[in-house]
Specification:
It contains 11 helices and 11 strands. The chain is globular. The N and C termini lie far apart (about 80 Å).
């Protein structure tokens, strides 16, 4: 009788155990994979996005991973094929990525990104003086010059647009124009005299100067560009199918909740060079798209 009782009990428990095992497996949550264009020192980017991933995990209730990429083009491709769910893009790469993923949205930018600037810098031995107007960029003709990455908004796209407005073409520089690959490298190349002049993102320039990482006896700013929209987060529509229709709004709110009075939050904001994040939309980058098409970076 006892044997029959335990056999019956075991028969009842086994299906429940199997059911629980299935339930646990079905609740495994796929991580939200974030990325960023590699516009600065890789160690700084790793520190920034690791801290951000920890914060977003707490706010969103899903696993969050940071996946580094080798260059700007790789970030666009990874977003296109779905390897990255959400990417910190520059203005140009953000437009390039969105055009290849129907339904992708620009959702957030820093407070500084709606009025962003590039700075042109020069080695002091070049004796290039400060410029006062966009037309003065003509003085760079015949000089050696480097941009940042070929797909950088602040280190190539908008600077080339301003140069063209001043009547300066890429063939007007001495030798072949350079593409350093990142804003940090642009500073070092001009500082070393490898190029007489170059251009980069103003926020990176200011942060490096404040950190004492620039030798101001060797290199100086010669011109600050007009303002334009730049960096922003772009999110893939596949996240809504995975996490729910309200997930994009949750991501936005998580960034808006970053509080400078909380030390961990302030560290993230400082690493981004921002006082806060603000919402943005695809429409804000229409001018970037137009300039990209004009100089052949968007087809």
């Amino acid at each position: 009788m006892k044997k029959l009782f335990f056999a019956t009990l075991l028969g009842l428990l086994l299906p429940l155990s199997a059911c629980n095992s299935t339930t646990n497996n079905s609740t495994d949550i796929q991580p939200l994979v974030t990325g960023a264009i590699p516009d600065q020192d890789p160690e700084k980017l790793q520190r920034l996005y690791s801290s951000l991933a920890d914060y977003l995990e707490q706010e969103l209730g899903v696993p969050v991973e940071y996946k580094p990429v080798t260059d700007y083009a790789a970030a666009v491709t990874a977003f296109k094929v779905g390897d990255l769910d959400m990417v910190w893009f520059g203005g140009l790469t953000g437009v390039q990525a969105r055009l290849q993923v129907p339904g992708a949205q620009a959702i957030l930018q820093r407070d500084i990104d709606e009025q962003f600037h590039s700075v042109f810098i020069a080695n002091k031995n070049s004796e290039i003086t400060e410029l006062t107007a966009i037309t003065d960029l003509e003085q760079l003709k015949g000089r050696s010059f480097t941009f940042g990455s070929e797909s950088s908004t602040s280190g190539r796209l908008m600077p080339q647009y301003f140069l063209q407005q001043a009547g300066v073409n890429l063939t007007d520089f001495q030798g072949q124009v350079g593409f350093s690959g990142s804003h940090d490298k642009t500073i070092k190349l001009v500082e070393a005299g490898t190029y007489e002049a170059g251009v980069l993102n103003e926020q990176v320039w200011q942060s490096r100067v404040e950190a004492g990482a620039v030798d101001l006896t060797k290199v100086q700013v010669i011109w600050r560009s007009p303002a334009y929209y730049d960096y922003h987060w772009v999110i893939n529509p596949q996240v809504q199918a995975r996490y729910g229709d309200d997930f994009v709004a949750k991501v936005q709110q998580a960034f808006l909740n970053l509080d400078p009075n909380v030390p961990e939050h302030q560290e993230i904001l400082d690493l981004f060079g921002a006082a806060k994040f603000i919402p943005t939309t695809n429409e804000n980058y229409a001018n970037i798209e137009a300039v990209g098409r004009e100089i052949g970076k968007i087809k």
